[in-house]
Amino acid sequence: MTENNKGQAKPRTATDSLSILHGQAKRLVEVLDGIRHELRDKSLLVPPAELGIALGYILSSGYKTFRALCKVCDVGEPWGQQGLVFSRMLFENYVTARWLAARPSERANLFIEFSHIAEVQSALIKGEIDNSFLAEGGAVPEGKSELHRQFFRVLPLFRKLKPGQGITKEQVLRQKWTDRFLPTMITDLDKKS
Amino acid sequence: MKDYQILHFFSSSIIHTTPFAARANIAGDLTYRWTPDPELAVEAMSAGLEHFLKLVLICNECLHLGQESVLKGFGDELRTLHG
What we know:
By secondary structure, chain A is an all-alpha fold. Chain A is built from 7 helices and 2 strands.
């Protein structure tokens, strides 16, 4: 509630609330702006380094999403429905960070190693490689031999992708780094608390 | 974090992102709102602030960023604002 010029309480409008929230958001962004350069270097130094890299990535991604949320929910023209989409993404970042931090030595490494799978997914979508790339002795396009080597190195880490069993393009494209959906991650966290 | 807290956040996020059409009275109102929506924006901003703050808190703890007192202040303010 706020007070008008006669000292009477009047209900806070959505625009009032939005202005207050934007004030808080601005200050939180300032805190992160103050440490993000330090974080970029420090993330490689904090043991275990993998956790620093993985959390640093999630935090930077969350930071950008949060900045986007503030823009979409601008006081002058607030598109709330789309803002809620960004809000859900932040929730997913938060749960992922918690899940990762619960068993950092195992999960942070998984997060980082998945980058090779993600690169293969991207190359498959762009048509730079095809099914033959997914066979151990298959044809590898020029410039992709290192990716091919890394792909088969990290493959055993991901449950659904077992080498030697034949891997399809669809299996690779469906693969997630956690092999879990968000509700499964939440259930995992709940078991530990 | 307790189960109910996680489930609360999860379920509220789902509700937040349910398509507007599903939340409207479809039988009586197909007008939708092709305009900015300050009320939903307040929901989005307050939920987003809360989720992001929690993310920052975890990162602060694990990466030793040293922002405990500042972040605690934000948490207290948010609780005051939303009861």
